[in-house]
Amino acid sequence: MRYMGIALMLLAAAPAWAGEKTATVKVYGMDCPSCAKGVAGSLKALPGVKSADVSVEKAQAVVVYEDTQVTLEQLKKRIEKSGYTTTPKKSD
Ligand SMILES: [Cu+2]
To answer: I need a labelling partner for 24 at 20 to 30 A (CA). Which of 9, 39, 43, 92 fits?
Structure first.
C-alpha cells in the first residue's frame, strides 16, 4: 500500500473563539505510552498549543492550537524533531 501526500485530517472545529483549530496529525514510530507522553509534552511546550492528545494505538496526535501563534507545519516539525515521523515510512 502506498500513501500519497500528507496523512492528516484538519477539523475546523473552532466555535469557542476564532483562530482555535483542532488538527489530527499522524505520528509514526511510537511504541509505548511514554513515547506518547513525550510527544504530547513537546507539543504542549510550543506556544499556542492548548492541548495535545497522543495515542500510540491510533498513531496520531489530536492537537488543539491557536493558529495565529503556531502553524500545523511547526507542530509536525516538532514531532519529527522528537524522533517520530508524520508521514508513513516507505515499506516494500
Ligand atoms: Cu516508547
So the answer is: 92
CA of 56 from ligand 1 middle (Å) equals 9
Residue 13 C-alpha to ligand 1 middle, in angstroms?
30
Residues 6 or more apart whose CB falls under 8 angstroms from that of 41 comprise: none
Residue 49 and residue 78 in contact, taking contact as beta carbons nearer than 8 Å: no
11 band by pLDDT with thresholds 50, 70 and 90: very low
Determine the topology of domain 8-81 in CATH: Alpha-Beta Plaits (3.30.70)
Dist. CA 27 → ligand 1 center (Å): 12
